[in-house]
Amino acid sequence: MILTRRFPPKLMVVIFARFALLSGSWAAVVYVLYAFADLRWLKIPFLPVSTIGTAVAFYVGFKNNSSYERFWEGRKIWGSVVNASRTWAVAVQAYIDAAEHLPETDGTHRRLIYRHLAWINGLRLQLRKTSRFHHEPSRTTRVRLRAHAEHMRNDWDDEVSKFLSPEEHEGYKLNKNAATQMIRTQGLELAELVRSGRLDLFRQLELMKLVEEFYTLQGKCERIKNTPFPRQYAEFSRLFTRVFVVLVPFGLLDVFADHVNAGTVMHTWTPIIPMIVASSLISMVFSTIEGVGDSSEDPFERSMNDVPMNALCRGIEIDLREMLGETDLPPKETEIDRILY
Fold first, then answer.
1. Residue 21 located in a structural domain
2. Which own/partner contact pairs does 261-270 have at CB distance under 8 Å and 24+ positions apart?
3. What are the average pLDDT values for consecutive 10-residue runs of the chain, which has 341 residues?
4. Which of 117, 125, 76 is nearest to 320 (CA)?
5. Is 41 exposed, middle or buried (0-12, 13-18, 19+ CB in 10 A)?
6. If 0-12 CB within 10 Å is exposed, 13-18 middle and 19+ buried, where does residue 193 land?
7. How many domains would you assign to the chain?
8. Residue 296 lies in a domain
9. Which of 33, 61, 233, 334 sees the fewest Cβ atoms within 10 Å?
10. Which domain holds residue 210?
């Protein structure tokens, strides 16, 4: 997630320079063919082109709204994970061994809370696996991922094993959906605590409601992750935008090519600069808006615009370990190049 109020200037230059180069070059080719190859039929009235642009703007706007809704839903889900995690830690400490006011001596509180920390990090890692629906990352994205590899924290052993016993950790590695099995273990241990008289039935039901909430939140994340943004909206939006961008220079001939027939070289070359500038600006605006929707439709990938699950998991870890009375806490997640993962 980008933290700065303003979009990073360096990134803007890279994106806009690419659009400007491609669209400007295409506009120059169209103008040269029209003015010097005498292909007068290339000129299209600007009105039909502008009408197509209006339709594309509505279509792209719908795509962007829907893409943002997916991102915002993902962020709300993880906000609920944060709140439910804090409630879980407090409930575990308040309910288990509460009836007889017994001291908690076997590490049950710590084990249940640490297994929960393993769950949130395991869920994060499962969601961060590249989606089968996601296109191949661009060269710029691949360079960023390599440069920020240490901040991605995608190693299962490093991120999960520190919260589990070696036996549990090795067992979960064999599961296809380890996060689901971690929550199941939590429920089974609660049942065992009831049988041993350390947790009464009423408080078990309260804790099981939290277990149910964790399953619900995980399911919501998996729904977004495993359901691609409808391709009929994503692909046709991209296609229509590209068609419009290709047609723009032909429509601009109707605006800027009036002096081509004046008969002098100066009059022939004069319109090319404003035509290139206008074509580049129009293409840049439409292509950028279309790209914004693409960058928001998958909120659990490894994009700079995704939900910052690393930071959220680290914040939960700090809160819960502090509730256990620990003082040797990890530092908060820090940004790198103005991006928080």
1. yes
2. 268/35, 268/36
3. 69 76 86 80 85 89 89 94 96 82 71 95 89 59 64 82 91 91 95 90 94 96 88 84 90 74 53 82 86 82 83 94 91 80 77
4. 117
5. exposed
6. buried
7. 1
8. yes
9. 334
10. 9-323
